[in-house]
Design a protein that fits this description.
mainly alpha
């Protein structure tokens, strides 16, 4: 089993790790799809220098900018938000998760679970609202 990334235990913020990972994913996807830095930068209305900073995972880059690039490349943004959920719940982020090329399937599975949870909650609420058969109104 690979080691896990722990929240900010060694002075490196989790956000910095997420930005670095995101930048690498954006660069990998851009290269895989044979899109030049100039083309992607133009697609998001920014400069090539700005894109180089995103791909390098520069700490001063905004997560919003990573999201903008990911969307322009047709990527899921789960590689940003799933690790944040782990941190939010004081859980270590599994390194295996960060190494996955695409989290689309995992993201879809999470959404299905949330949808099922919400549907069940609505059904419970609806059942509480229905008067029992012998109750008078």
């Amino acid at each position: 089993m690979l080691p896990q990334i722990l929240p900010a235990s060694d002075g490196v913020s989790v956000i910095s790790v997420i930005k670095e990972n995101s930048g690498k994913r954006i660069e990998t996807r851009r290269r895989r799809d044979r899109i030049s830095q100039r083309m992607l930068a133009a697609a998001v209305g920014r400069s090539v220098r700005w894109l180089r900073e995103i791909e390098a995972g520069i700490a001063s880059s905004a997560l919003e900018d990573h999201i903008r690039c990911a969307h322009a490349l047709g990527m899921s943004t789960a590689h940003i938000f799933v690790p944040l959920l782990f941190v939010e719940h004081n859980m270590p982020v599994p390194r295996e998760l960060l190494l996955l090329d695409d989290l689309w399937d995992a993201e879809r599975a999470c959404l299905n679970i949330l949808h099922e949870h919400q549907s069940a909650a609505q059904n419970r609420h609806a059942l509480r609202s229905v008067p029992s058969p012998g109750a008078r109104g």
